[in-house]
């Protein structure tokens, strides 16, 4: 079957079409179309995501991205049969807060045949509620126009699936699984005892790790989002030797799997404020900051592994693009010597995207087994939690 996935939880607009077959655990899939628009350039100026601007950008980009994904999947058949007035009215009502989006969608529907899509899945949380709603309402409109089931998907479950984007990996998954989810909005340790069975065993008490990266990057004059830049700079620092700076490792020894990054961020601020840092000093800040983050993440993961004896360790989220972190996780497992396999996101899937949502959505589709939720009951939930 073909599933259309939509992601608008933060500042990436994603539309993907996946061909998925098989059952849970013996799933096969192929990306037929994948289009992604990053709003980084829009938010760069402000050093962070402005929800209302993000919302507008999602609304502007969804139809062009859908058109591109359908085109890539070779699913565009031109047909000038216009949508009925009644359907137009229903779509306009569903998208009453995004009038231009409604217009653009109706224009597209007037041009093309119903494509060979069997279900639609959309991120309904967690994330920024105003931006989530754009995706959810758009998905509802499409599901109505094409008379398809609509499957709500959890963004964090998507990040987990980004590391399972391989048929062999899915088939070989052994539970329990511990997932370290590290992104701009979340830092969580999650235990999966089976498919769809989640327990959040630790999370940040304040800033997410990616958020701390972005804020520290800003303090030393690096562009938003900054995680990648700090990562790069830290390498240059390491090549030179020891960092001149020393930052704390918050909650390193706390007797739990929780995190805190706001104190670390403040410690950096305290040491860099009112200073005109040289390039070399910036490298030292980046190096020490990254060392502190990696040390804390590894320590807490170790705690989770000790307590839950997983067969599989998985990392997901934008920060999983950090090779030093994934390298340290692998080294940690190698040193333990027990046979825990490490799964990391497939190339290009660590940051937000619709492909991971498509795979997570397909699993939810299988789980629903025909008992789909009423699309009208689907709501955006910025605080959605995997264990609820
Ligand atoms: O998962 P994601 O794309 O969006 C959210 O769901 O939040 O994560 C984005 C975060 C940003 O904070 C970004 O700075 C961070 O991931 N990031 C990195 C790296 N690449 C992206 N952090 C550290 N090292 C990286 N290489
Ligand atoms: Zn994310």
Explain what this protein looks like in three dimensions.
By secondary structure, this protein is α/β, with parallel strands linked by helices. It has 13 helices and 10 strands. It has helices at residues 40-44, 51-72, 85-94, 99-111, 129-146, 155-162, 167-172, 209-219, 227-240, 262-272, 279-308, 323-336, 355-368, and strands spanning 2-7, 12-23, 26-38, 119-125, 150-154, 177-182, 187-194, 197-203, 312-316, 341-343. The strands form 2 sheets. The protein has a 5-stranded mixed beta sheet with strand order 3-2-1-4-5, with helices on both faces. Strands 8-7-6-9-10 form a 5-stranded mixed beta sheet, with helices on both faces. Helix 5 (129-146) links the parallel strand 4 (119-125) and strand 5. Zinc ion binds next to helix 6. Zinc ion (ZN) binds at residues 155, 159, 183, 317, 352.
Q: How many beta-strand segments?
A: 10
Bound molecules: 5'-O-[(R)-(carboxyoxy)(hydroxy)phosphoryl]adenosine, zinc ion
Runs in which pLDDT lies below 50 for 5 or more consecutive residues are none
Series of secondary-structure elements, N-terminal to C-terminal: EEEHHHHEHEHHEEEHHHHEHEH
- What is the share of helical residues? 40-55%
Shape: globular
Count the DSSP helices. Answer: 13
> What gyration radius follows from the Cα positions, in whole Å?
22 Å
Cα-to-Cα separation, first versus last residue: 28 Å
- How does the helix and strand content classify structurally? alpha/beta
Spatial sequence of strands, sheet with the most strands: 3-2-1-4-5
The proportion of strand residues reads 15-25%
In round numbers, the mean pLDDT is 97
Question: Quick one: biggest sheet?
Answer: 5 strands, mixed
């Amino acid at each position: 079957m073909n599933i259309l996935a939509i992601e608008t939880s933060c500042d990436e607009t994603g539309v993907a079409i996946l061909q998925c077959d098989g059952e849970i655990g013996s799933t096969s899939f192929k990306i037929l179309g994948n289009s992604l628009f990053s709003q980084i350039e829009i938010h760069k100026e402000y050093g962070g995501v402005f929800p209302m601007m993000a919302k507008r950008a999602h609304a502007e980009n969804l139809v062009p991205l859908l058109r591109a994904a359908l085109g890539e999947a070779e699913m565009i058949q031109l047909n000038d049969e216009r949508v009925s007035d009644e359907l137009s009215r229903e779509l306009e009502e569903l998208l009453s807060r995004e009038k231009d989006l409604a217009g653009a969608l109706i224009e597209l529907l007037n041009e093309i045949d119903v494509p060979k899509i069997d279900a639609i899945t959309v991120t309904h949380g967690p994330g920024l509620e105003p931006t989530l709603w754009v995706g959810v309402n758009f998905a509802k409109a499409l599901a109505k126009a094409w008379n398809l089931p609509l499957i709500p998907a959890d963004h964090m479950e998507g990040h987990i699936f980004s590391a399972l984007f391989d048929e062999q990996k899915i088939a070989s998954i052994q539970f329990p699984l511990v997932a370290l989810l590290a992104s701009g909005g979340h830092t969580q340790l999650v235990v999966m005892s089976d498919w769809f069975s989640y327990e959040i065993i630790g999370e940040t008490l304040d800033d997410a790790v990616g958020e701390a990266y972005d804020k520290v990057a800003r303090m030393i004059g690096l562009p938003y989002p900054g995680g990648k830049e700090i990562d790069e700079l830290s390498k240059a620092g390491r090549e030179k030797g020891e960092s001149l700076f020393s930052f704390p490792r918050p909650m390193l020894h706390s007797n739990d799997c929780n995190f805190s990054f706001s104190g670390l961020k403040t410690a950096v601020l305290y040491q860099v404020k009112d200073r005109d840092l040289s390039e070399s000093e910036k490298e030292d800040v980046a190096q020490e900051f990254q060392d502190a983050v990696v040390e804390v993440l590894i320590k807490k993961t170790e705690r989770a592994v000790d307590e839950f004896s997983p067969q599989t360790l998985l990392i997901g989220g934008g920060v999983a693009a950090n090779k030093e972190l994934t390298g340290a996780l692998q080294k940690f497992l190698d040193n333990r010597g027990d046979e825990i396999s490490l799964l990391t996101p497939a190339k290009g899937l660590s940051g937000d995207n619709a492909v991971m949502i498509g795979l997570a959505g397909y699993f939810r589709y299988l789980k629903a087994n025909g008992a789909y939720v009423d699309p009208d009951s689907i709501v955006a939930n910025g605080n959605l939690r995997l264990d609820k």
